Each structure stands twice: as C-alpha cells, then as structure tokens.
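hi! just following up on the protien thing from before. the input was this:
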Amino acid sequence: MKQMVISAPSASSANSPALAANAMLAAMAVIGVIDNVVPLLAEVVGLWQFYLMRTVLSIPLIFGLAAIGLGQVAPRNWGAVVLRSLLVALSMVFYFSALALMPYAEALAGLFTSPIFIVVISVLFMGMRIGKIRILAVLLGFAGVLFVLQPDLNNFDWLILLPVAGGFFYALGAIATRSLCEGESTVSMLFGMLLAQAVMGAVGLGVLELWPLPVAEGADGFVTRGWVWPVWEISHWVLVQAVGSVLGVFLIIKAYQLGEASLVAVFEYSVMIVGPAFAWVVFGQEIGLWQMFGIALIILAGATIALRSQ
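and the predicted 3d structure came back as:
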C-alpha cells in the first residue's frame, strides 16, 4: 500500500499540474496491482515473515533513492520518525491482514477511512475548526464505508473492523508526519517505516517460535503462521511487492514535488478504482452495485476533505 508522503512542492510545481497528476495516477496504478499480490503470499508465508523479507529486499532500493539525491536516510528527529514509523507499520499490519482475509475493495475501503479519522482527531484533540462542507464529507465517507463493508448487525463479523483499524493508525501516522516530522526527508521516513516493519516481523516470528499458535490452512493462517521454508514459489511475489512499493513511493514523491499537495491528493483515490478493477479482472472478485456506490462516496468525501484542507 502507499506510504504517506508530505513534501514541499518544487519551484516548478505550479507549471506542472498535469505531470503531477500523471505521476500520482501511475503510483496508484502500481500500488493497486501489487496489493493484490498479498493474498497470494498469504497462502504460503505469514505476515511477519513477509514483513521481514520485504524489508530486506527494499532496503537497497531505499539507499538507491538516497544515492540519486532524493533525500538522506538518517532522520533529523529520531523520536518523531520512530513514532511515525511505528504507527504506519502498525496500520499496515491491520491492512495486510485484511487483504488476506477479505476482498480487496473492502480492505481498501476500510483503510481509506483515514481522512475521516484525521478530521475527527484534529477537531476533538487538536482544536481544528471545520465548516459544514467537511462535516458533510465525513458523513458521506462514513456512509460509503458502510455501503462497501455491508455489516450485518444481526450476525456482526468483527473481521470487517481490521481495515478500519488500519485506517485509524494510518490517520495517526499522517498526523504525526505533519505535526512532528516537518523537514524530514521522505527517504528517511520510508526507511524508518521499513525498519519498523522489520522489527515487528522479527518480534512476531520470535513470539510464534516461543509460543506457537494453531495455524489454519491457506490465507486464514496469515497472521498466526511462523517461519516457512523454502519460499521459492512465492519469492518473486515478495520481490514484486518490494520493488513496486518503492516505485510507487518514488512516483508519489514526484507528484508532490510537481504539484500543489491538496490537488495531488485527490488523485490518490484512483487506487480505489484501479485496485478493485484489477482484483475483478484477474481474481474474479466481484463488486456489487451498492459497493460501487460506496466507493464513489468515499472518493467524493476524500477529495472534498483534501481540497477543503488546502
């Protein structure tokens, strides 16, 4: 999934809105495809092993980004970057778990509750004042999530809260990025997030080694599965995830360098079209009419919040 990037626009940003939009659309196309790989990985390896393997493959690429001048690896404020990294890595634990256990559109809809949580947290705990339009956008976004997830109140499945929890921690990570990580290199924040994922992966594997849990077959065992070997049959998918994630982030960086942030952010919602469409064409994951309506509401709400936050 995408990683939050907040960069100051370059001097040429005002002259390159089309390039910024194309870069963001390309980034979301990459991410919409590679996130569909997670259920394939979940059939063989566990979440914690995936976290660790992806970091090992991604780190050289991160240093490559630093080598070509996209930012320094070492953070300026270690505490802020560590906090932000842990929050984002934790959000991805919930999101990747949801990807393995439910259709892509539902997992993505839960994660995209993050703009709603950002507004609510900012109002309740940070003293931000918002107008009627953003209040309406929050309500529309919440309604859209309900349309996509379609909870059954008579037989409630707590599983649907997994991606919503991911959206909550993703929102906290975004707030930490904006309020605590000003001036930090995107490369250092991405590196910190990957290291946090590696640490969580190592800790998770260690805990499962000491206290093994019953492991279900296939994707149902994604979270409780320990180290698996050999993994040659899915190693290429881990590589696709690692390279695709770094490429997606690189394109997001370029988008925010080329265009005004609130306008560029609107194009991030294209992943809610590309990802589910890819899942439908390749994996046969169908989307109902009401779910498509919910996705439209989420896109409308997120775009409105982004534009009104300018």
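DSSP finds 13 helices and no strands in the chain.
The CA atoms of residues 137 and 301 lie 4 Å apart.
cheers
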